[in-house]
Amino acid sequence: MMKRMIAGTLAVLSLCSLGGCGTKNPAGEDAVSLRVWGSQDDQQLLRKMCEDFAAANPDKNYTFHFGVVGEGDAKKIFLDDPAAAADVFHFSNDQLSDLVSAGALAQIGGGYRERAERENGAGSVDASMIDGKLYAFPATADNGYFLYYNKKYFDEAPDTLDDILAACNQERKFAMKLSDSWYCASFFLTAGCTFSEEKKIDFNSPAGLAAATAMNALCRDSRFINFGADYDSSMISGFGDGSVIAAVSGTWTAEKIASEIGAENLGAAKLPKVKIGGEELQMRGFAGYKLVGVNASSAHPEDAVKLAAWLTNEENQMKRFTERAAGPSNTNAAESGAVKANVALAALADQLQYSVSQNNVPASYWTAAEGFGTDLVRGNVPDAELQAKLDTLVEVVNNPIG
């Protein structure tokens, strides 16, 4: 959804033959042509990875056709024209269910599955599976949200929301975009609400009401700020001028916040505990992963699977981290000193144990929940009206029109 995933559009496919760099089969046999999709920002790195793959497999003459398709757009572009879809492509894990339902993805089995499960974190593997079957290779584990804070105002990472608010006042605030359905889900997940396998929500339960009540209280607190549509830029500049001392965001804002307050003052940690229904609970959130899938209709399925496994191996995940600051799902890579030294990725890694995949989130949720959160942020919803609003939210999400 929106900034959670790197957006992109399908560009004119470019042809890059990698068979000539000492890898071409002299007899011209075993020629394999593969279409590969990745985001605009990843094109140079993706081409290099494919070139290395061809060099490592000189028994075949590989030719690659590259398409610029962002992870967030992969499902739509694939399903709009399956005949033109890539053999190997990157996509966000929240698209997995729809791609599998459409028969777009090849199932990953045998030694490839064993390696994927052995080498990657459990959360990323779970996000690659439907009904116990693996349909993609985990590539990154870096899309989620956690807490940033200015060390000038906190001696250590704040443990609770109350700790954060105690350091705030009307001039220096805590920011979280509760008008955004991605973020406001945190309160419901923390309270124990779920997105079921049937893609239904239970947010109008007693737990959901307790979550909404806690969220409503925060929205009315003068020490809280939502910002709205320009959340990222306003939050970052707020850190710079001191009007924000703590905020919820993701890895993409780390460098900009550090440039405003100095890297020495940049603190990052898991989300705080929050009081819901009289009980202090660890805040949960969404965990997002980027995956690499194989087209079920590929003319070269074995080669496509082999390439997908190559693009997501430990070495290439470290290359993504080094060149693109992407958080590895590979456990060895994630445990490297360089990755652990990254303040934002370390905080996200800590938060991921308290986060859930977006695989079961229905498409009908996003706009409906955004409207719910926006109403609360306006600060004029009495607690007595929350149950009715939750009933409406659940009805719209669980019974979409069309």
Q: Could you explain how this protein is built, in words?
A:
The structure is a single chain. This protein is of the alpha/beta class and 402 residues long. The protein is 39% helix and 19% strand. The chain has helices at residues 43-56, 74-80, 96-101, 110-119, 122-126, 161-166, 181-191, 206-219, 231-241, 254-261, 301-311, 314-324, 331-334, 337-340, 343-352, 365-377, 386-398; strands at residues 14-17, 31-38, 61-68, 88-92, 129-130, 133-134, 137-144, 146-150, 173-175, 224-225, 244-249, 266-269, 273-276, 279-282, 285-294, 355-357. Strands 1, 2, 3, 4, 7, 15 and 16 form a 7-stranded mixed beta sheet that branches. Strands 10-9-11-8-12 form a 5-stranded mixed beta sheet. A hairpin with a 2-residue loop joins strand 5 and strand 6 (133-134). Helix 7 packs across helix 8 (206-219), helix 7 crosses helix 16 and helix 16 (365-377) packs antiparallel against helix 17 (386-398). The radius of gyration is 22 Å and the shape is globular. The two termini are 20 Å apart. Mean pLDDT is 92; it is low at 1-28.
